[in-house]
Amino acid sequence: MTRQLDEQIVGRFPVGQRLRVLDVGMGQGTQALRLARAGHQVTGLEQDAKMIAVARESLAGEPEGIRERMRIIEGDGRDTGVHFLPGSFDVVLCHGVLMYVEEPDPLLAGLARMLAPGGLLSLLVRNGDALAIRPGLSGDWAGALAAFDTVSYLPHSRTDSNGGTPIRLGLDVRADRLKDLTSTLAGIGAPLHAWYGVRVFTDTAADGADVPADVETLLAVEEKAGRTDPYRGVAALLHLCGVRG
């Protein structure tokens, strides 16, 4: 997903431009810190106190220049209008958050309002069109059959929304369908510009599994599959990029 995001940023903004980035539901700050290290001005919004503590600890270990480029705000992603003025950001990230929001449309509309004209909205969601894949591959036939007719599921774990450690929550959560999100993005003025699959082949890997020795080849395969039909359509996650009109 990081490679996909960088591709969109490079293709949309001049090289060397210091972007104003908002990471909503930043988790432990993996993407926020990465973008701050790249020279961008980053604001992380997170409501989980434990995640904030981890992010602040990580930030404290960075050089002063990076610390000055990143700020962390405790708050709910649905309240962006309370914290920021419309059009305040060039890039807005919302990764691994929508699955925990029962009614995502107001959140998405608020995120779109935060974007300056031409700004990039990056969403990472659970793929509602592929919920039968995991139970089917694991031989849970009843679970696979039920998954065809729902967008609700019980996650085996929650991974920090920006790529950190899996955390078991035990919550019933929801997935999103590409067709529905495409319509929603058009309706809030940030129509879909590009989309990718994430975790096409690796979603069934066991939690805590050892990283393979040839991880670069694994990533290359996932990156290729994530942009290639029909593979991307059955990915566990979808990475959608909308552009503010």
Structure explained in plain terms:
The longest helix has 12 residues, at 49-60. The protein contains ten helices and eleven strands. It starts with a helix and ends with a strand. 34% of the residues lie in helices and 23% in strands.
The proportion of strand residues reads: 15-25%
Q: Tally of extended strands? A: 11
Main beta sheet strand tally, sense and closure: 7 strands, mixed
Straight-line N-to-C gap: 24 Å
Overall shape: it is globular
Rounded radius of gyration (Å): 18 Å
Give, in order, the helices and strands: HEHEHHEHEHEHHEEEEHEHE
Class of secondary structure makeup: alpha/beta
The helicity comes to 25-40%
Q: What would the average pLDDT be, to the nearest integer? A: 91
Total helical elements? 10
**Sheet with most strands: strand arrangement:** 3-2-1-4-5-11-10
**Low-confidence parts, pLDDT < 50 over ≥5 residues?**
157-161, 163-170
